[in-house]
Write a structure and sequence with these properties.
The protein has 499 residues and is an alpha/beta fold. It contains 21 helices and 10 strands. It is globular, with a radius of gyration of 22 Å.
Length: 499
């Protein structure tokens, strides 16, 4: 069947990150991993994004051990991750040597497909990761962060697709993190990429706006190769469209996925039971939130905004902040709203509203963005905002990571004997304040399974975060605030090919 569509299921990464605050434990993943391995997915997204630091920070688990475990349980399925380019799995840029070690170790531990993106679509921040993933034999999927603005058009994204192909991408992903793409825009973009770039195309969207299923169907008609879905009991809202629905719609057509609805139903039932364990972490976002269409705010950003405003007893300012976000985004050069640029824009919009004066307080993250340390903004930054933030200082024009010194030997020396493997050093290099206490607990024999230690760590982190948030918001007299209310602290597999 030459037009057969393939499925990437997201329940082990993006679905629980979107719906359950990234709290699903490895032990619950193992309950369904072998079932998933029998389905015939093109891939399963299991790692990356926020799962790496959340595993250590909130669950007391080793993210590397999770990857190794899933690899053993899913030998016939490509394992896929979301890699934030030069940000790796963090919220800032890391030196090239840290990035290279991370990718090599990730591949060695069983990862197959590297979906690589940059929040600003700055190719300079993606090229090294793509090169390193290629060197270790990974499938390199270059991702386009989809957004809407006066400087983002279909032709813009098609040109980026061509550039990603020239950098060695094996496939292209349209990454619609906010659920903004419309069905007809999806058709146009997929068709153009297939015609002008010639690589396999995968489409990732969220159901936040309510358009997700229609978007995937039009993409299928345009020739998309793979679509991202989530098993029904972990779909909709800020997650992906339901796997079974798409499989049923396409059944008997030229696009038939060939997947067994009965087997999928069994996974869905298992996930229904598992999800109940995480009720306390439910995002609480409505099944469809049309605010995303007006304000272009991803679901995770909305839930974070609600949480922070509640902490400040300022929920009456919710719509004021939503109105402010597009204004700030325009002034900052229309960055796509995805980690970490969504936090940067959201931070500034929140301060502008809560302080009663726009740009009275400018967080350090915003200043660094304006200085160019996150990459090149899609459009020019408002000159007056730039002056308020950094005065007469000139932003850098080089690749931000070129300003960083190598970090591997430094991290290795600092963590010392606590690190029992190269993976431990990488964890520390990426998240020193989280990895050190995790490794110390492990050294004392608590490991990643001690619920009490993990609960204490979570409680301490939350208390510190709330104190820092309150302190930052009250610091209106200062020229800058360092802590914001958006604190971001050679395998072979099955019968291959895209066809």
């Amino acid at each position: 069947m030459p037009n057969k569509v393939m499925i990437c299921d997201t329940i082990l990464r993006d679905a629980h990150q979107s719906l359950l605050a990234t709290r699903m434990r490895t032990e619950d993943m193992t309950r369904i991993a072998q079932q998933m391995d029998k389905i015939g997915y093109w891939s399963a997204e299991v790692w990356g994004g926020a799962t790496f630091d959340s595993a250590m920070r909130f669950l007391g688990e080793d993210p590397w051990e999770r990857l190794r475990t899933l690899r053993k349980l899913m030998p016939n399925t490509r394992l896929q991750m979301l890699l934030r380019g030069q940000n790796v799995v963090g919220y800032k840029h890391y030196p090239d040597d840290i990035l290279e070690h991370f990718i090599a170790a990730t591949r060695r531990n069983g990862l197959d497909v590297f979906r690589i993106f940059d929040a600003l679509n700055d190719l300079r921040n993606m090229a090294p990761a793509m090169k390193y993933a290629k060197q270790v034999g990974g499938h390199v999927q270059g991702a386009i962060s989809y957004t809407i603005s006066p400087v983002h058009e279909i032709s813009t994204f098609v040109q980026m697709g061509k550039d990603l192909a020239n950098l060695g991408a094996d496939s292209i992903c349209i990454k619609d993190m906010a659920g903004l793409i419309t069905p007809y825009a999806a058709y146009e973009l997929v068709a153009a990429l297939k015609k002008e770039v010639g690589l396999p195309v995968q489409l990732h969207t969220h159901y936040t706006s309510g358009m997700g299923t229609a978007v995937l169907l039009k993409a299928v008609e345009a020739g998309v190769d793979v679509i991202d879905t989530a098993i029904s009991s972990m779909s909709l809202s800020t997650s992906q469209p339901p796997t079974e629905t798409l499989v049923a719609i396409l059944k008997g057509t030229e696009y038939d996925t060939g997947l067994d609805l009965g087997a999928l139903a069994e996974i869905s039932r298992s996930m229904t039971d598992i999800r109940k364990k995480y009720a306390a972490f439910e995002a609480g976002v409505a099944a469809v939130d049309v605010n995303v269409l007006q304000f272009q705010v991803p679901g995770g950003m909305l839930s974070n905004l609600v949480s922070q405003l509640r902490q400040q007893n300022a929920m009456d300012k919710y719509y004021d902040v939503l109105d402010e976000i597009p204004r700030v985004r325009k002034e900052l050069g229309y960055p796509p709203l995805v980690t970490p640029s969504s936090q940067i824009v959201g931070t500034q919009a929140t301060f502008n509203v809560l302080m009663g004066e726009r740009y009275k307080v400018i967080p350090e993250e915003v200043k660094q963005y304006i200085r160019g340390y996150y990459g090149k903004a899609p459009a020019p930054i408002d000159p007056e905002v730039q002056r308020k933030a950094i005065g007469d200082e000139q932003p850098i024009t080089c690749r931000p990571a070129d300003m960083l010194s190598p970090g591997w030997e430094k991290a290795k020396n600092e963590i010392g004997e606590l690190a029992k493997s190269e993976e431990d050093v990488i964890s520390y290099a990426l998240f020193p304040q989280i990895a050190r206490p995790f490794l110390e607990r492990r050294a004392k024999g608590l490991g990643g399974k001690e619920e009490t230690a993990a609960a204490i760590a979570v409680a301490i982190f939350k208390q510190q975060e709330e104190k820092e948030t309150l302190k930052a918001i009250k610091a209106a007299a200062g020229p800058a605030v360092g802590v914001s209310p958006w604190k971001i602290s050679g395998r072979r597999f099955g019968q291959g090919g895209w066809r």
